[in-house]
Amino acid sequence: MGTHCCHHEPQPSPDTERHGRYRKVLYIALIINAAMFGVEILAGMRSGSVALLADSLDFLGDAANYGISLFVLSMGLASRARASLLKAASMAAFGVWVLGNAAWHAWQGGPPEAPVMGMIGTLALMANLLVAVLLYAYREGDSNMRSVWLCTRNDALGNVAVLLAALGVFGTGSSWPDLLVAVVMASLALSAAWQVLSQARRELATV
Known about the structure:
By secondary structure, this protein is mostly helical. It has helices at residues 2-5, 14-47, 50-72, 77-108, 114-135, 143-172, 176-205. Helix content is 85%, strand content 0%. The longest helix is centred in the N-terminal third of the chain and has 34 residues, at 14-47.
């Protein structure tokens, strides 16, 4: 009887509980980013905004990154670091694509529709701020967690820039504010890719 009274169910470790919460946050972030990709790419094509198109592909890349993070979450450090290398490559590719698209529109395109940019930029900012709040507690984890946080932070900064670009386009009737913001977003993506790549390589060197 004493043995029975002293029997306790095993309690989950703090790390297990933390991973469980993180997994739920990633699922929410994945759904939000996939939905916003659809909204923004349609709005970007309709309005002719390079900044919105860049932000829509950023949402798509983030949705893919959250999916990869969910897949490797329970794996070892080496597997998570290799996934981070893949995500760093995707962020770098996004940055290069946006720079090329901005250059093409500078040569061929006209001014985008500022009201559409403002409306969709506000919606995107609200979505990314929600995801950023959910992910804030996990910003100092391994390279995999850090890459997720950096993507979300860059998204929120990019949305603020899109809103500023919409004001600039509305005030000047020129496409240059839109193109400038697209270049800034590309630079953020390239900078984040380098940070994640560097941390992932350090982690792989220790295993």
